[in-house]
Structure formats: C-alpha cells, structure tokens
C-alpha cells in the first residue's frame, strides 16, 4: 500500500473524550489549514472558510453555545455535552463556505470543495499527532451563525473538534470496491 492510500485508510474520527490535554499551537493549526488550501475547487472559487476557536475565545463561545443550545432545545444535557466537547478540545475549527457572489458554479460544488478541504485537514492531523472529528449539530451551527461575524453568503457547515490523543484508532469495517462499483466495460 502506498503512503497516500495508507494515510487515507487510517483517517478516523477521534472524539473529544479521547483527547488528552497536550497543547496544540496556533502554528500547528495553521499547518492543518495549509493542507486545506490544496483541495480541488471548480473555477478556483476556494469557498472554504475557517474560524478557529482556541484559548479564551473557545471557552467564551462554549459558554454561549451551551446557553443557546439549552434555550433552543429545552434540553440542558445537550448544552452540557456541547460545552464539554469544546472544553475537551484544544481547538475548534468552525467550518463554513463562502458562496461565489457570481454563482459561477452550483452551490453543491462549493460545499463539496469545502468537504474536500476538511478531508485534507483530517488526513493531515495524523502527521501532526492529532485527531479530530466533524460535527454538524444544528443548534450549535445556528448559535455560531448568530454569534460570528460571517460575510454575506457565508454558511456554517459544522465544527471540527481538534486535539491530541494517545489512542490507537480502531479498525473501520468497509465494503470492498466491488460492493459499491458497477463496472461498465
């Protein structure tokens, strides 16, 4: 197996309850975001946008999101869980995309390009001894949409919880190529 396929096959969701408290620096997060730059993007719209929450800002937004989620869902445990995930993470990357104002490409292509940028980040976490996962919880996304200064046409797709961990990711069962491929020869 070549190095690229090996890296792709080892990508796993690592949840915040598995993170240790080892520090992640802003420069290390910048390196992850550097990997995002190389995602495919039709018409070079580069729609991905990231808002990085670290340190005091992460804790401040965790409190705001907790309150919003509790009020929105009327379920305090949901707010507590979201705050706990943020507190356990060394950084939280808010994933958004910016719709091309000229709409030169369909919106789904910009969402897909953003997802590919996140995949690049996710794969590169391994090289830096980190792990993470992409969460798309609607109440948290709505809370951040109201609280962050987004550009016109910018939409949040979720949060990427980032941290260091000491766990060996579990093997993931997956279908064989022939189970999801139709060969037309």
Q: In whole angstroms, how far apart are the ends?
A: 26 Å
**How many strand units?**
4
Remind me, CATH topology?
NADH Oxidase
Order of secondary-structure elements: HHEHHEHEHE
Instruction: Give the strand content.
Output: 15-25%
Class computed from helices, strands and strand pairing: alpha+beta
Please bin the fraction of helical residues: 40-55%
* CATH architect. name: 3-Layer(aba) Sandwich
CATH superfamily: NADH Oxidase
Low-pLDDT stretches: none
**Total domain modules:** 1
Strand order of the largest sheet: 1-2-4-3
> What is the number of helices?
6
Protein name: Putative NAD(P)H nitroreductase
InterPro entries: NAD(P)H_nitroreductase, Nitroreductase, Nitroreductase-like, YdjA-like
Pfam family, one: Nitroreductase
Keywords: Flavoprotein, FMN, NAD, NADP, Oxidoreductase
Question: Would you mind describing this structure in some detail?
Answer:
The protein is an alpha+beta fold. The protein has a single domain, classed as NADH Oxidase (3-Layer(aba) Sandwich), CATH 3.40.109.10. Helix content is 44%, strand content 17%. Helix 2 (26-36) packs across helix 5 (107-127), helix 3 packs antiparallel against helix 4 (76-88) and helix 3 packs across helix 6. The model has no long low-confidence stretch (mean pLDDT 91).
How is the topology of this model organized?
Blueprint: H1 3-9, H2 26-36, E1 48-53, H3 55-73, H4 76-88, E2 91-98, H5 107-127, E3 130-135, H6 138-147, E4 154-164
Helix pairs in contact: 2-5, 3-4, 3-6
């Amino acid at each position: 197996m070549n190095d690229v396929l090996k890296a792709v096959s080892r990508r796993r969701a690592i949840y915040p309850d598995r993170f240790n408290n080892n520090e992640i620096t802003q420069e290390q997060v910048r390196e992850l975001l550097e990997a995002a730059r190389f995602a495919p993007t039709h018409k070079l719209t580069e729609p991905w946008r990231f808002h990085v929450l670290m340190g005091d800002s992460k804790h401040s937004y965790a409190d705001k999101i907790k309150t919003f989620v509790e009020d929105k869902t009327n379920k305090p445990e949901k707010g507590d869980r979201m705050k706990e995930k943020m507190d356990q993470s060394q950084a939280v990357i808010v994933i958004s995309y910016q719709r091309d104002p000229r709409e030169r490409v369909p919106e789904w292509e910009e969402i897909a390009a953003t997802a590919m940028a996140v995949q690049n980040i996710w794969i590169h976490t391994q090289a830096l001894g980190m792990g993470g996962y992409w969460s798309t919880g609607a109440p948290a996304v709505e809370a951040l949409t109201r609280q962050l200064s987004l550009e016109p046409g910018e939409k949040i797709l979720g949060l990427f919880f980032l941290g260091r961990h000491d766990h060996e990711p579990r093997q993931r069962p997956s279908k064989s190529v022939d189970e999801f491929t139709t060969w037309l020869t």
